[in-house]
Amino acid sequence: MQGGNLQSLRQHNRASILAMLQRSSTPLTMGDLREGTGLSRPTIESLLQDLLREGLVTDRGLRAPSHSPGGGRPPRLYAFDPTVGCLGAVVLGIDDVQVALADLSGRLLGWRTAPLRPGELRREIAYDLMQAMLRSYRRNASELRALTVGIMGVHTTSGAILRNESIPELSDPEYFTPYREALSCPLHLVNDAYLAALAQYDELCADEDVHSMIGLHASTAIGCGIIVEGELYQGHRGAAAEMGFARELGWTTADSLLRDFAKSHDISPATVFSRAAEGAKEYASFVGDFIDAAMPGIRALLLAFDPQILTIGGALAATRPLIEDRVCQALSGLPAGRPDIRYSRLREEAIITGAIRHGVRAIEGNLDPSRR
Fold this sequence. Notes:
- With 372 residues, the protein is α/β, with parallel strands linked by helices.
- The chain has helices spanning 3-23, 30-37, 41-54, 122-136, 177-182, 192-204, 251-264, 269-277, 281-305, 320-331, 350-366; strands spanning 57-62, 76-80, 86-92, 96-103, 108-115, 144-151, 154-155, 161-163, 187-191, 212-218, 222-228, 231-233, 309-313, 340-343.
């Protein structure tokens, strides 16, 4: 095997061990790691030494001795240390900017929202907010291990933005260059609906044997993300599930209806859904029209992908009593039957939560030892 392949294999094995330790609620023994990863003891010992030197894993000492006869020497315990760095999450929305900070296990440290300021770019508002949050938690930018930015629009899996009609400033190919120059951590640009789907998966499906899920998210706009085996599926060029650009499928119409209705009532789009959930008849009637407009795109995506589960989240999820029968009826004619439909409780925090979860997944295999 060539050197590059050996290095790739070692990195993969390292990621497997780190992920298992990271996701465990209790310290693990060498035997636990062998059983969970299938790796040999010498391989695990070598990689654990690397992780211990990097500070990502701590030696918790010997497990409490067993009182059973012939128990032998207790094994050592190892645990992931989530405090040796932090994760940043940013959501650049139509009306505001959200920023969050979490430890390496994904535990939220803080979350703030700032309205748009006239004449200032969203990236500048988010950067200032992130710096303020780092200071408030006595952290500095060098401790960031990953920064995930949720954005609207279509972009490649490498982060190059191809099209953004909702927020034109994001279409500048150099828009995020200041982030790359100021921060030494990896920068991940991900569609906001994809991030919401990731959060919904962890909330509703992660503890089950779920091979595929489509996550619908609607708050300020409507979007979908596809999850396969617990990971985002973004397609060859990063445009999977972008049904909104096929106008005949209704998502453009649904978005326009939502923005126009909200503007005519001088409220935010998310408030439209919350008032409908509270029982306001005009708003409840609108939600029915919104679902009817969006349903052709949802049906098309379900027919093409045939997922095990469809999740519905964002502010729209609060209207479940109003839309549940309508959605089930609209999907009852699918050839293989409709998927299991579940509703998220995350609401407005879904995208920022998904950005944190994306960061957790990213560092499992991409923590660079040189960036301690």
